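Help needed: design a sequence for this.
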């Protein structure tokens, strides 16, 4: 009997130790230790600024990163659904990604969500807006001067001398190229407008069968003089200006108008490092991180805060056209199919 009682006591002590150790491990994870795997679509400056700030805040968390285009990384998330290889998708997400892939994202609302204005809150329960992206054209000044062209509008891209000299990514794979396509449609008459799609047809013909491998290929190609003009987005272009290269490239907001697009981050469903993923989402939505964006080449999603980077053109000086996010979410496949048909016809 004594032996049985002794063994029972030992068993209870071991069980308690295991439980206590498990509790400590859980508490450690919640306190910010262990690992965090990030799928990131952000450009270098933005990544270093925000992820670097997170690392300073949680130095015991080991960060592992996979960089890529939004389309590429979303494909990975979908393919890895049964065994997630990342914890967070940092950037590159639109509201349509929740509608198309609702089971891919873990339900979570950042602690600071209520500080954001209406329209830029997490209204899906999973996607946390972090920045606002403006699309633009980037012009290589010297190459444009050689050809004797002035580029101030989308219409100017149809100039025959620009054939094969325009950089664009693939809207079926690149979020920035998709946003350019939908902005063009909105600015040229509407998503279902014959006039707008006729313009897209002519623009595709002037691309002359050339698409860059990704978003970065557009602005880098223009900066390096491989192309005269590129359809790209604001933040990396502003970096060139801040680094003193305004004599090389010029940012142009087309006179027809552009759209303002909120970009989001999200926790991947069943993330293996869930508590650290929640810490990261809380961080990107925090006042501290949003102020970093406000002073950077990107525009913060919390527009209740002022933008403090003087290099950025005030939004009030840019023509903004409405963007119907709900329509685009519901009709993305048909728009892509129509673009693909036009591309195939011209190439």
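Sure. Designed sequence:
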């Amino acid at each position: 009997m004594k032996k049985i009682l002794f063994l029972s006591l030992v068993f209870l002590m071991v069980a308690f130790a295991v439980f206590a150790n498990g509790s400590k491990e859980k508490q450690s994870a919640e306190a910010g230790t262990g690992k965090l795997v990030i799928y990131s679509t952000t450009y270098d400056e933005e990544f270093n600024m925000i992820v670097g700030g997170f690392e300073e805040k949680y130095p015991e968390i080991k960060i592992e990163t996979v960089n890529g285009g939004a389309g590429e990384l979303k494909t990975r998330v979908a393919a890895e659904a049964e065994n997630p290889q990342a914890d967070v998708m940092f950037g590159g997400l639109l509201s349509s990604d929740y509608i198309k892939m609702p089971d891919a994202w873990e339900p979570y609302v950042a602690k600071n969500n209520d500080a954001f204005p209406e329209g830029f809150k997490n209204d899906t329960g999973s996607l946390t807006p972090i920045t606002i992206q403006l699309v633009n054209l980037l012009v290589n000044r010297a190459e444009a001067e050689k050809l004797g062209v002035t580029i101030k509008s989308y219409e100017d891209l149809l100039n025959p001398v620009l054939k094969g000299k325009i950089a664009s990514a693939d809207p079926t794979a690149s979020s920035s190229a998709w946003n350019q396509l939908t902005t063009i449609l909105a600015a040229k008459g509407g998503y279902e407008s014959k006039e707008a799609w006729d313009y897209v047809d002519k623009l595709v013909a002037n691309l002359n069968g050339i698409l860059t491998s990704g978003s970065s290929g557009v602005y880098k190609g223009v900066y390096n003089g491989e192309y005269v003009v590129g359809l790209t987005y604001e933040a990396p272009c502003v970096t060139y200006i801040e680094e003193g290269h305004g004599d090389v490239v010029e940012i142009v907001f087309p006179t027809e108008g552009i759209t303002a697009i909120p970009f989001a981050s999200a926790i991947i469903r069943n993330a293996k490092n869930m508590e650290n993923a929640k810490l990261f989402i809380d961080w990107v939505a925090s006042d501290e991180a949003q102020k970093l964006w406000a002073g950077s080449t990107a525009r913060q999603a919390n527009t209740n805060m002022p933008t403090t980077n003087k290099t950025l053109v005030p939004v009030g000086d840019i023509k903004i056209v409405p963007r119907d996010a709900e329509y685009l979410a519901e009709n993305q496949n048909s728009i892509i199919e129509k673009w693909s048909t036009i591309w195939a016809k011209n190439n």
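The chain is about 45% helix and 15% strand.
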